[in-house]
Amino acid sequence: GVEIAITISELLSLLEKYHLKPDKKLGQNFLIDENIVRKIINLAGIDQKEVLEIGSGPGTLTAFLSQKAKKVFAVEIDKKILNVLKEVCQNLSNVEIINEDFLELDVKKLTIDQKLCVVGNLPYYVTSQILFRLFEERDYIESFTIMVQKEVAQRLLAKPGSKDYGILTVAINFYCKIEDYFHVSKNVFYPRPEVDSTVLKASFKEDIPDIDERKFFRIVHACFSTRRKTILNSLSNSLEIEKAEVKNILNKACLQENLRAEDLDLEHFIKLYNELENRI
Ligand code: SAM
């Protein structure tokens, strides 16, 4: 395709032109490596798709997305960096810039005739909130391809029994199938962040369990409330149910009472939910 990427020197001169310094509080670490940008785009699989980009910043990724996608909604919260984004996207007719906080965005309003593919080099200070927002908006989203801190990716990818396995792991497994991922060095950003990153693609499951999610996650939180205690103790303390009754419930769910939350996979949590839902 046409080379419309902005290079590191162009990025720096654009930042200078508008008297901008990357804003740490907004998680502004900009991608400056074209190969990584291409890898993200390939993983995302956005040919002819409608794309929502979270945190477009100066538009490095946006410009590439625009080449392949049918339409790109470029969401960016920062008014200052918007000047650069507008300049970079001025001749890209399929890019629509939206100056909003993604957490407040009405995603449904943007869907035209297909579900959206979400792509983003995420601002790390709000990663979990963004993830939970994506889960909430799943009716309008096909998949999401996101750059996150490597530590967060390890939690998303964790297997039961490992120290990284937790609420976030259960949540992503509840809603999504992780398609693929790759790690990225901190050297591909300006300014360079403290930690390495991971790009990960997830798509929403067709068969998300049809249960009361609020209750389900109350149970998951209760189990993880005291990570080192047994689920018998955690559930009893956290949900204020007599131990004898919790024992009975665990028994019916075919779960041993000395298990810890990190030992339970999604199926186990669902069994537990089925036995507990009428009790909470
Ligand atoms: N996409 C650019 C890139 O890859 O170089 C910038 C990525 S930078 C890690 C994250 C961007 O998200 C920043 O431009 C930041 O201003 C923006 N941002 C931070 N919080 C946001 C929010 N709540 N909603 C939308 N954008 C946000």
UniProtKB/TrEMBL annotation:
Catalytic activity: adenosine(1518)/adenosine(1519) in 16S rRNA + 4 S-adenosyl-L-methionine = N(6)-dimethyladenosine(1518)/N(6)-dimethyladenosine(1519) in 16S rRNA + 4 S-adenosyl-L-homocysteine + 4 H(+)
Domain of life: Bacteria
Keyword rRNA processing: yes
Keywords: Cytoplasm, Methyltransferase, RNA-binding, rRNA processing, S-adenosyl-L-methionine, Transferase
Cell compartment(s), UniProt: Cytoplasm
Signal peptide residue numbers: none
HAMAP family: 16SrRNA_methyltr_A
Entry function: Specifically dimethylates two adjacent adenosines (A1518 and A1519) in the loop of a conserved hairpin near the 3'-end of 16S rRNA in the 30S particle. May play a critical role in biogenesis of 30S subunits.
Designated name of the protein: Ribosomal RNA small subunit methyltransferase A
Species: Caldicellulosiruptor morganii
